[in-house]
């Protein structure tokens, strides 16, 4: 996979560090977004759904530690912490909280690049587990065959509309990821988002009704203010 398919969000309030990291990532083909505050980071996140976050702990509007805790309630995406806090105990606490890696400032840019590649590889591998050699996607008691357009829940084939099937395929291809309504709409319909929030909700709700008999409707979770994801 080429790097320009990966989106990275830098949440850091020091302009010099931001600019170093931005240049590094941009040069290496990553699509890069920069947010100097947590608030802006959140809105960039919702709009662009990055594949990885580089997070400074000392931000003007929120402590990075609280951000990690928050992100971890709805997503498993890789978080690399960059911080001036250097004690070994800080590092262990951060990893326990759910950060995937930690770099103490000042850090070497090549080192950061290497750590990013490791996390993205790891992330990509865990998504790839969902696809077997036959191209069939599997998630818990669900199977979805994109070629045959067949979806089964707990061994029973379900009759889904074209759009419902598309939504399930998008979610099952990225079982760890939160999708905004806009993303689901644009990918499932193949059209620009019409800003009609309810359309996606109605389809997801119809899918849930069809899933009820199999007892798997709870796999499909609404993330308030964000969109939808699967529950592992
Ligand atoms: Ca800072």
Main traits of this protein?
232 residues, alpha/beta, five-stranded parallel sheet, four-stranded antiparallel sheet, 8 helices, 12 strands, 43% helix, 21% strand, elongated, binds calcium ion
In short:
The protein is of the alpha/beta class and 232 residues long. It is built from eight helices and twelve strands.
Q: Mean pLDDT across all residues, rounded?
A: 85
| SSE sequence, one letter per element | EHEHEHEHEHEEEEHEHHEE
Shape: elongated
Please give the number of β-strands.
12
User: Helical content, roughly?
Assistant: 40-55%
Unique bound compounds: calcium ion
Strand order in space, largest sheet: 2-1-3-4-5
What is this structure's SSE topology?
Elements: E1 7-11, H1 15-27, E2 31-35, H2 38-48, E3 52-56, H3 64-72, E4 79-83, H4 88-97, E5 101-104, H5 109-128, E6 137-139, E7 142-145, E8 150-153, E9 156-158, H6 162-173, E10 179-180, H7 181-189, H8 197-211, E11 220-223, E12 227-230
Parallel strand pairs: 1-2, 1-3, 3-4, 4-5
Antiparallel strand pairs: 6-7, 7-8, 8-9, 10-12, 11-12
The chain binds calcium ion.
